[in-house]
Amino acid sequence: MKYRITHTTTYNYSQAVGLCQNQARLQPRNFWRQHCVDSRFEIIPPPKDFRELSDYFGNRLAYFAIQQPHRQLVVTAVSDISLFPGRQRHELLPQQSWRQVQHFFQETSGQNLNKQQLQTLLEAKQYVLDSPMISASPELADYALPSFQDDRPLLDVVSDLMRRIYTDFTYDPTSTTIATPLLEVLAKRRGVCQDFAHLAIGCLRSFGIPARYVSGYLETVPAPGKPRLVGADASHAWFAVYIPDLGWLDFDPTNNKMPHDQHITLAWGRDYADVTPLKGIAFGGGQHTLSVSVDVLRLEGDGGFGEEFF
């Protein structure tokens, strides 16, 4: 599959901004099932300074600074990507129980691992720890407990937890903000994709299972007979779980499915704070309004390389 992603963020200010510095994580990652063929920025007004870097988690990061007075800032990222779903990797290997995985991360010291295995272990262990927006808690553990049956394969545990979040919680964009505490989301049983991803991650970390936050896009399909609306797609979020000898597997609790050929990955980290699409500081500006438009366009033609990726 081939897609073109157009993500436009517009800030309108009541007073002129004299200087702004920004960080953007708006360029899709490259990994086993996804390749970013091309990605470019269109920034108005043009930045004085622009640099592309990688952050701590390996996400693509663009820094730019605008040093001329402006009352509107428009940042557009256009990316062409190819997806290579192949076969689901979890179908190819034996399944481990959640207790085996929990024990692996609690008891493995790394003494008998080679350098690459040790690096992978340490990288995954950081996703067991609390992060700025997600803290393990008895309340989250209590909610997750019915899914954590003794000796149940971890994949079954996570699939059941995903299904329960999908069933128990209502998608309601008016019910939460970025700052809404996770326990409030749990109590209200309402939220958005960001909240549901955070909730699942908190539940898994409460049982010592490493889980990370994934930001990206989801292709939306119009109803039969209806035209596709340009700019109607939105940023999306889901989570991934690490399983030794298998790697990271993605789960989307908002839609109760494992991402396959319609989920485009932008960035990943411990929680939303690590992957904020666009953030920065502005000197001046007064009050401001923000609008975001996302368009996920499926392109014609074969998006594969003629082989399967695992």
- Named CATH architecture of the largest domain: Roll
- What ranges have pLDDT less than 50 throughout 5 or more consecutive residues? 302-310
Q: Outline, from the CA principal axes?
A: globular
CATH class of the largest domain: Alpha Beta
- Helix-strand makeup class: alpha+beta
Treating each run of at least 4 consecutive H or I residues as one helix, how many helices? 6
Query: What's the CATH topology label of the largest domain?
Result: C8orf32 fold
Helix-strand string: EEEEEHHHHEHEHEEEEEE
Taking all Cα atoms into account, the compactness measure Rg is 20 Å
Number of strands: 13
Distance from first to last alpha carbon: 16 Å
Helix content range: 10-25%
Overall structural domain count: 2
Overall pLDDT score: 90
Say what oligomer this is. single chain
The fraction of residues in strands falls at: 35-45%
The biggest sheet, with number of strands, parallel, antiparallel or mixed sense and barrel status, is:
7 strands, antiparallel
